[in-house]
């Protein structure tokens, strides 16, 4: 990560934390009244193949003692009505401003993988994670809906894991490496604006 990108991340994340802080407080109160505790979902992700960090989100699923692997159709029943609303608007990711300020994430980059996948494909993720993981990115914009559709058809954790390993990981890695080759501040702004545009279009049509 260049120092220019890091400074922009810090400046914009700090400004957004101030501007959106009241929104986050309202959402936390709403979550507490509607769903109860815990309010946050905190889970390990990898910013390098051997460097984990704790990713923060607002909780959108019913809590269970053990939750592993990516979300597929086998976890769909656990998504709460409040959580579905938050996910559709990506408001569940507001706490990741803290991850950006800490330096775990950038605004734009590959999504940080689970440890099990980083350890299973170390050479692939060693290349992908040369770019600091991000809240959004080329793979998130281009592939997100297709990935959701693929995983939504999975009915067991084993099937979800298999589809994710065979199809989603290689496809997203190709896009992440394309981003890496063309990475610059202007491209990052373009991807952020595309993400915002997609959210507005998705909410107008009622699609997630």
Shape: globular
Tally the helices.
8
Based on helices, strands and strand pairing, what is the structural class?
mainly alpha
In whole angstroms, the N-to-C terminal distance is 31 Å
Unreliably modeled segments? none
Percent helix range:
55-70%
> Order of strands across the widest beta sheet?
1-2
Overview of this protein structure:
- The protein has helices at residues 3-34, 81-88, 96-102, 115-120, 122-128, 138-152, 157-182, 185-205, and strands spanning 40-48, 51-58, 106-108, 134-136.
- It is mainly alpha-helical and 208 residues long.
- The strands form two sheets. It has a two-stranded antiparallel sheet. The protein has a two-stranded parallel sheet with strand order 3-4.
- It has eight helices and four strands, in the order αββααβααβααα.
- α1 (3-34) packs antiparallel against α3 (96-102) and α5 runs parallel beside α7.
- The chain is 59% helix and 11% strand.
Keywords:
single chain, about 210 residues, mainly alpha, two-stranded antiparallel sheet, 8 helices, 4 strands, globular
Task: Please sum up the structure shown.
The chain has about 210 residues and is mostly helical.
Set down the secondary structure blueprint.
Layout: H1 3-34, E1 40-48, E2 51-58, H2 81-88, H3 96-102, E3 106-108, H4 115-120, H5 122-128, E4 134-136, H6 138-152, H7 157-182, H8 185-205
Parallel strand pairs: 3-4
Antiparallel strand pairs: 1-2
Helix pairs in contact: 1-3, 5-7, 6-7
